[in-house]
Amino acid sequence: MAPRKLATALAATFTLTVAPVALADINVGVTLSATGPAASLGIPEKNTIELLPTTIAGQKINWIVLDDASDTTKAVQNAKKLISEDKVDVLVGSTTTPNSLAMIDAAVESETPMISMAAGAKIVDPANPKTRWIFKTPQSDALMADAIAVNMKASGVKTVGYIGFADAYGEGWLAELKRSAQTAGIKVVAEEKYNRADTSVTGQVLKLVAAKPDAILIGASGTPGATPQKELAARGYKGKIYQTHGVANPDFLRVVGADGNGTLLPVGPMLVWEQLPDSNPIKKVAAGYITAYEKKFGPRSTFGGHAYDATMLVAAAIPEALKKAQPGTKAFRAALRDALEKADVVATHGVFVMTPHDHNGLDNRARVMVKIENGKWVLLK
Amino acid sequence: MRLTWSAAAVVVFLALVAGAPMFAPPFWVTLGNYIGLYSIAALGLVLLTGVAGQTSFGQAAFVGLGAYASAWLTTSYGSSPWVALAAGLAFTALVALALGFITLRMRGHYLPLATIAWGISLYFLFGNLEFLGGHTGMTGIPAIAIGGLELKSERSIWYLIWGTTLASLWATNNLLDSRPGRAIRSLRGGYEMAEAFGVDGARLKIVVFIYAALLAAVSGWLYVHLQRFVNPTPFSIIAGIEYLFMAVVGGAGSVWGAVVGAALITVLKQVLQDVLPQLLGRTGNFEMVVFGVLLIVLLQRARDGVWPWIERLLPKAPPAPVRDAAPLAPRDRGAASGPLLEVNAARKTFGGLVAVNDLSFRIEAGEIVGLIGPNGAGKSTTFALISGALALTSGDIRFRGASIGSRPPHEIARRGIGRTFQHVKLIPAMSVLDNVALGAYLRGRAGVGRAALRLDRQEEASTRAEAARQIARCGLDAHTFDAAGSLALGQQRIVEIARALASDPTLLLLDEPAAGLRYLEKRSLATLLRTLKGEGMTILLVEHDMDFVMGLADRLVVMDFGEKLAEGLPAEIQRNPAVREAYLGGV
Amino acid sequence: MDFSIAALLAQDGITNGAVYALLALSLVLVFAVTRVIWVPSGEFVAFSTLTLAGLQLGKASGIAGLLVAMAVVAGLLEVLSAFRQREWKRLPLRLAAWTGAPLAIAGVLKWAAPLAPPFVVQILLTLVAVTALGPLSYRIVYQPIAEASVLVLLIVSVALHFAMLGLGLWYFGAEGSRTPPFTSATFDWGGVLVSGQSLLVVATSVALIFVLALFFNRTLYGRALRATAVNRVGARLAGISPAFAGMLTFTLAALVCAFCGVLIGPITTVYYDSGFLVSLKGFVGAIIGGLSSYPLAAAGSLLVGLLESFSSFWASAFKEVIVFTLIIPVLLWRSLTSQHHDDDE
Asked: A206 and C9 in contact by Cβ < 8 A?
């Protein structure tokens, strides 16, 4: 049952139509943060790569996965290794925004297309000519922050407090929250920072609560997102609590427990594919991927979805590029880049419609608001 | 010059460095570049931690200073990386001076923790300053250009990185083999001894600290223009620990340890990443586990790091011969009045205990005076008061007419007092020649800069010649190039005297020189001291061994319970009933 | 800031400070007896919380696997040293202690985990399992280089920290865990709400410190350890083997860390890599105590906890900057007012 389901799911995504021709293998280099502070994001990404088929469009494909330990230096080293030793045709990675930013020069100078799995909009900033070679799959924080601001405005929130990681993730979200809150006429009345492994956030939470905001956004990923939320509950905070899509994994629900009830967050639709209407094309794709993932690795993570989407983009671009050049050549990499820029792919997190000005290609279809109710994600209609 | 084996090894190494970018696979060049960068930062730690004994976890923070300074100046103000380098070095030196001034006063375990503290502070500061790109980082940093040639490719920047690495190695090696180098090597463990020869230990520590920080800043500058991106993660406290790791694993006692350590750690991580997934399948992240276990095993087998192993395989280079050179200028003694040394109602109390009770005596030029007394009489305390190791509670000590009471030891040494130690304080791994040359510290003037650039050779040759002369004067010329630690105790005591003589002293303070010596050793020591007296030296001898002093001293001062019991010619003292009482007690 | 906020911050600071104090205590103990700066102490804390959280879910394979692996290595080392010294008589006993006992603990864990034993039993199992890692790590890692310099011992500690961190990620995953609270009671003391959980943490820490003080002052083994701390050579002459003292020290220190892990489980989320920062703060406390004075180390830890709590209120972005910058003058003061003998060791 399950293996067949996986086969159908993959057949649906990786169309096996072109007749096999004897060409060189296609090498896809993946660097991700399977250890270090971003490990909870990188591990599902790494797992996802293990699910992928080894032929696309009749062409043998090698997935070469390296761990960069959430470290920018190592990410650049990995990128250089993949480019110069493995002669990869496309780079996938890395998990975090700083790591991806750091890799850009290596990718651009070797003219290798790169698909990042990190959120920062700066990675594909169209104003920077280097980003011609760079794409990314996760929704930009801006897209998600807008969803939060819209939801806040609709429910009459006038003031918002922010507490987030003292790292690139928390910093990116704070910037986007400020921007989208201003557009929505909401005032940011407090901003606090904490570290992923902090044992206590009492000080920050007391200060947040003292500012009496109508709502609080927690800019964190994974289980550490539960630390301020539990503290807010203990201090009797009664306003609305928003989280980011970074916490959308079962471990967060396990750790936050009953204190998570009523929390709102924007996520990619894959998280709640069961609740999507059948008319949504994303549902089928997400169902295929998540069923296969959960069969092998346990509960879903949206970060795995970003990796899967990246490989779907690659898979869609390969047949186009094969028409123009041989894998392993400069021309093939350029053709891949051109094909990626024209990609129009229904994936697990949304529908990617790439253009020369938008190397992320996602729109409002890539986000839904969900609410936590009794340890479950519930789609808001 | 004869082509020695080690010179050949250096030539092979240089050829490898020069040829690598042309022949090696591109990723090896990439790795090589990182190894070069890390070597420079680790080299700073070899000097600071391995040689000077000051453990620092903060090296990564200084790498960050150099990196951020250049990143900010080149992106925000469009300045040239070279200008940014100069500015970054100046800024790093200032920060290191301030931090060193505060934290290097700390001894023992406080210093490492203080380095952790400011290492963490600087890391979070980088992450929280918006103009530095915050935690996300800064992009668009330009490549370094040399005369219009942009060093964008791995191959082109290789020569800059390894050129800098080799230059740093050369300069640091020069530094260690020089006047300030000997003083730096003596900081570890022998702090008190170094001070006694005029080394201002506190100041020297700060100088070494700044030197290490500047190396780190250079490494950071190269890093940021190689990477062309910067964010705080490479400068975290974990990175600081890794630099220390490289230095210790490579061998923190030698400059080559830095290169070996940086190469070993970088290559090991890379190999593990390549090999482990094939060995174990793709089920986990075992790199870190295997890395940790391998290093534990390695350090269990080679505590001093890997370099000593390699060094043993290389043929040993013969020591550089001592050449004739212009003699060092004698010390400027200035005008003097009154007796050579005058102890005037000197008093030292520890809490309620009076260790020295208003002691007075004087020494005239050309005398050998023995300060004797039973155990606990206050001899050693008196010695410490004269040498400056302890401060007076009240009273005064005058040397050649000027007060030296409560002055720091290096200042007392400057006035012409040379000393030895009750517990021999030599640097065991250093040759006898170098140990004795340290005694001449105050007679030279070469500083860190001149030494590192090898502009001190003339003075160095004179120093070595002087040291060799003093060794010969004490009859140890057969052992000139032996490691001081390999000598017998009696010989080590004589090395200490030679070292004191190298400082061209007016007064020689000897702290229990006969303790632990065998009969024959005592006899040759006594002969040496008599010869010195014959040459006009004044000697104060603190001694427990009555027989030894009796035959040697012109005059004796006897102490008991912190007070002067008697003073006079040896024969008088021998007849003094109070002294007999004190020494023989109720027996 | 009003009084109630200050009181809450103080409560938070004292609770965390109490945990740091326990860590500081174990660090001082380990350093005084073996000269090891015990960097991986934090991993013992994290392993303890995560093992307890795992037992809650009926799992114990991680820690059991580690015990088995270490038992095998320790056994091999014993056989090797017996072979080298041609001394076979004591080998069976040593094998029973170094291999048999840990294997038995692992077996019990594996057997008991799926049975969902009562919470108290789970805590006991956790304490026993994590404590057993202490002497095993001493036997395998530190005993062979017991005479090396402080710097080398420190670097070996860091290597062990890396290895344990990697194992922690493998066994427990990247996500964190909490354990259920011991109590949900709160007390109103003159308008200040005090949580029962915090009180329990502080009370247990104080009790543990008291018990350790009794152990050191009143028992033969405790005195033996103190003697070793004061004078290693002397202790050896008096018949206290350094290997035995080291093993005993690491057992005690691991037990204290295991307690720490159990205590913080309900008040915070613990991750595989949480340990380093917690132990670093304990280390700060320990250093303020000069790595030798227990009361000063405890006071230093409290100071760190309070600094942290108040600075996270005032300027959370600069919390670490504030805490670690304010530590420097304290260190300077301690350094200038305390006695030093030799610069290295």
From this structure: yes
